[in-house]
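Lab manual, section 2.4: Encoding a predicted structure.

Procedure: take the sequence of the chain (420 residues), apply the prediction step described in section 2.3, and record the output as structure tokens. A sample record is shown.
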Amino acid sequence: MNKFWIVLAHTYLTRIKSKSFLVTTAIFLVFIVGLGNIDRIIDLFSGDRIDQVAVIDDTNQLFQELVQQNELADTSFELVAYQDTLAEAEEEILSGELTGLLHIQTEEEGYFSTIYYTDQLIDQSIQQQLTNDLQQIKVALATADQGIDQAVLEEIYQPIEFETLAVELSDGRTARTEEEIGAARGLVYVMLFVLYFSVIQYGNMIAMDIANEKSSRVMEILISSSSPISQMFAKITGVALLGLTQICLFIGAGYYVIESRSDVMEGDMFQYFGFSDVAMSTYLYAIIFFLLGYLLYATLAAMLGSLVTRMEDVGQIMLPMTLLIVVAFMISMFGINMPESSLITIASYVPFFSPLVMFLRVGLLEVPLWEVALSIGLLLLTTFALAIIGARVYRGGVLMYGRSTSLKDFKQALQLSKKD
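Recorded output:
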């Protein structure tokens, strides 16, 4: 057992001190802090200047109404009356003094027409806001001409009250409300992405670590001092602790950003992201399925990694595992909006898909406990069986050298494990 801890500590400390880990972690931490302060960064580059949109009003009656609409919408630009010529306005737009020019023209048939001049055609936010404001002004003019009271029109367009009530289930439970489902959907999204990227990143890390030791002949020294099975699970645990360290750093950075911006953001991290309304059982399932999903794919990664010697061959041998997690992720993304479909229900019992898909179901639906237990049981049995097979393949695979990128090498690895 002492050798297990030695290999575990070596795997963890070697990876956590590596430049790739430090640089990647630092980049993500900077990204999290930058994302939390994006408004400050934008203000830093934009300064205190407010975009100005000039208005030439040929009707001599719409400008003030348009200004009032703009103030009510609390936009990021201001409207100014323009007295010079259109050619001079175009020069000011090109020089950056004006953001755009709105020319309101009179119409013989109809109320008015508009032309907007600008050199910023990618950002359409100002055009969209002006269009909405002008449309409301036109509606007000039309209703006034027809003698329709504005209050009556507002009452007609008042949204109806539409309430949804959850029906009590047959076992006495109540179906989840829309607010609970919305809150749980955020946690489901986070869990799906975290598990997806964790499996790909840390699974490849395990396989590359094993291939690197084989290529440098360090493996020959390791297997003479400790059993291959002990090495395999020590590496899996060591990389798991490494991933946990990295994830905790990211969560800590996110918590620090939210707490430091308490003047802008309300509540703690769980309240800000809408996770405070999620049932505690959902958090428990998130931890269970994350750990079981990682253990399943990490065992598969260690088994596959033991079959290759060169670092260049890791990507090819890991392709089957990558395809499995990609399919599971795609099914989960499909099931976000259709969690009750037959495809999602069936996939939630498939061990290689269930860490993502069954968690999706328990997060968004009221799934009977026996279904969750069955899914977890199948996942545990598959992980246990894969661990037994993987340990045998690993025991023989670490003794295999030369170019090996085919899954047919499983047979050779199993034969070598019997001779060991």
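Check your result against the sample. The longest strand covers residues 51-57.
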